[in-house]
Amino acid sequence: MDDEPDWLRVMTFNLLVARPVSPRPWRDRRPLAGELLDRARPHLLGTQEGLAGPLRDLADDLGADRYGWVGQGRDGGDRGEFAAIGYDRERLEALDSGHFWLSDTPDVPGSETWGGCCTRMVTWVRLRDLAAGGELLAVNTHFDHESAYARERAAELLAARLRVLAPGLPRVVTGDFNAPADDPVHAALLDAADLVDTWDVAERRGPALGTFHDHRPPVPGGERIDWILVSRGTRVREAAVDDFARDGRRPSDHLPVRALVRVAGGGGDEGEVDAG
Question: Domain ranges in the chain?
């Protein structure tokens, strides 16, 4: 991907929760995840299914001085899976951050009221772009994998919160939405939150692959359930599904998605055509 100074490298990456007993333990996958991220060097990284220990490992591998992190477990504190956001301190400065839960009581940690399989949450951080100038709101989430109703309600709440969290700021939303991009929840979220999908509006795209491969060969044209969404008006130079593997092994059961973006008001050239 291009590396001009005012383009922002964004990635969403479901890390695959590190279970106590697993045929693919985190200790074996950690070097692969570290190599993938070292190659991609995202300025902004939304992760899903990370536990406190593996996230500390990633922070160490990427460099604690280089990357900052925002997140907490979905059950509160360090308990449960995180929807953590990492950001490159040389490019981005965190100004404010917070969390809310995808439920009727969004400010209650660990709450779940929509009949989903488990607790789901959102992490957000307001950032200053040190290279391009201006600010942006980064938001990361993981929707329920069993309940369509829970995903619909989650999209409604996410859109409502986006409207009030940082009015007027460009937004970058990353996540595992557990729904393909042709699902109604995709269209509903884009419409309600005035977002576009970077894959749809990118000037260049890599091969279309299903992002959940479950340790089998990725499926060309398969379902893309991991999305990077941005404010309407954002220019997207490139979008790609990252099919990194080493000796046939991959760091997760999901393929990360990457995008190279220039957010509206973030240093774009006058006269450029807006995406979306």
Answer: 8-262
